């Protein structure tokens, strides 16, 4: 149940607890003029607003986790969001993975040929995909396709006051709307990254073995011996899971916090894509520095 009896606080109470923006309504007209004419004050207010918004996002994330129970008790809600975020993203993920594998095969063969190591083409393609390109590129595509759609959907529900209507009916919108979309993205992301890597390996095999003529047995045997499950495959899965959490929470937060106008929703979608891309690249650097440091 999503009613306020099962979740202690309704939408209005949740917002009042999560979001406490400092009020500037009591400023005098002279203070507002002085504020607008001072670059230092503008910078200060911008910094304070960014820090406040980061804190609001953290408290919103905690609220999503807190009210995630109903989305698992009513599993069809989460399954519908997995279909929306994952299954409908399969085409762009698989086609992109195939072409990335084809490019890796061409570039890798050209480089390895200089050193007489063309049999290691399978290792090069597999390690590049499982360690880096698979999770990162799949997450960027996921943010562009599914993340922007989730932000638009929640933003439009806010603009048309559907979230307020749920609150009037004693339905918690975080539990009913936000949490299923969050978990749908988190669950879909590792699966999409795995499919991206698999299609990339297939593309590398096609260009290397079928078209160029690399030995088929050497391609697969070198890949088998050179790819470690713990340091390569499993670390790639961890990366894709972390990227899924980051993209999903950014998408639902931007939609929930968007200005309820057409322009506000469009800006929220833009912020989702840009912020998700920067978060993915920054998290990739942090995770890589911990995962693959000193491994052979």
Q: What labels describe this entry?
A:
296 residues; mainly alpha; 81% helix
Enumerate the spans where pLDDT stays under 50 for 5 or more consecutive residues: 4-12, 19-34
Count of extended strands: 0
* Structural class determined from secondary elements: mainly alpha
Helical proportion? over 70%
Q: Describe the main β-sheet briefly.
A: none
Order of helices and strands: HHHHHHHHHHHH
The gross shape turns out to be elongated
The gyration radius over C-alpha positions equals: 23 Å
Strand content: under 5%
Question: Mean of residue pLDDT?
Answer: 84
CA-CA gap between termini: 51 Å
Number of helices: 12
Task: Give the topology.
Layout: H1 11-18, H2 29-37, H3 39-66, H4 69-73, H5 75-85, H6 90-113, H7 121-159, H8 162-168, H9 173-212, H10 216-226, H11 229-256, H12 262-291
Helix pairs in contact: 5-9, 6-7, 6-9, 7-9, 7-10, 7-11, 7-12, 9-11, 11-12
Structure write-up:
With 296 residues, this protein is mostly helical. It is built from 12 helices and no strands. Mean pLDDT is 84; it is low at 4-12 and 19-34.
Describe, in short, the structure shown.
The protein has 296 residues and is mainly alpha-helical. It has helices spanning 11-18, 29-37, 39-66, 69-73, 75-85, 90-113, 121-159, 162-168, 173-212, 216-226, 229-256, 262-291.
């Amino acid at each position: 149940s999503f009613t306020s009896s099962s979740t202690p606080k309704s939408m209005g109470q949740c917002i009042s607890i999560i979001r406490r923006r400092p009020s500037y309504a009591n400023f005098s007209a002279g203070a507002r003029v002085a504020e607008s004419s001072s670059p230092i004050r503008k910078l200060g207010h911008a910094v304070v607003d960014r820090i406040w918004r980061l804190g609001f996002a953290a408290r919103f994330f905690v609220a999503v986790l807190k009210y995630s129970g109903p989305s698992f008790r009513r599993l069809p809600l989460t399954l519908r969001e997995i279909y929306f975020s994952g299954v409908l993203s399969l085409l762009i993920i698989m086609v992109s993975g195939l072409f990335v594998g084809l490019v890796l095969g061409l570039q890798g063969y050209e480089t390895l040929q200089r050193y007489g190591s063309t049999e290691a083409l399978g290792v090069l393609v597999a390690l590049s995909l499982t360690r880096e390109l698979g999770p990162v590129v799949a997450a960027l595509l996921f943010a562009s396709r599914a993340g922007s759609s989730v932000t638009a959907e929640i933003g439009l529900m806010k603009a048309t006051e559907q979230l307020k209507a749920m609150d009037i009916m004693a339905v918690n919108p975080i539990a009913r709307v936000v949490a299923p979309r969050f978990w749908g993205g988190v669950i879909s992301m590792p699966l999409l990254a795995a499919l991206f890597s698999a299609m990339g390996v297939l593309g590398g095999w096609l260009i290397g073995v079928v078209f160029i003529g690399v030995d088929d047995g050497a391609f697969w045997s070198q890949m088998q011996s050179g790819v470690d499950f713990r340091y390569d495959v499993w670390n790639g899965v961890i990366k894709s899971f972390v990227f899924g959490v980051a993209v999903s929470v950014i998408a639902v937060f931007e939609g929930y916090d968007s200005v309820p106008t057409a322009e506000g929703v469009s800006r929220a979608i833009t912020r989702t894509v840009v912020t998700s891309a920067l978060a993915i690249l920054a998290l990739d650097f942090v995770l890589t520095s911990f995962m693959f440091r000193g491994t052979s």
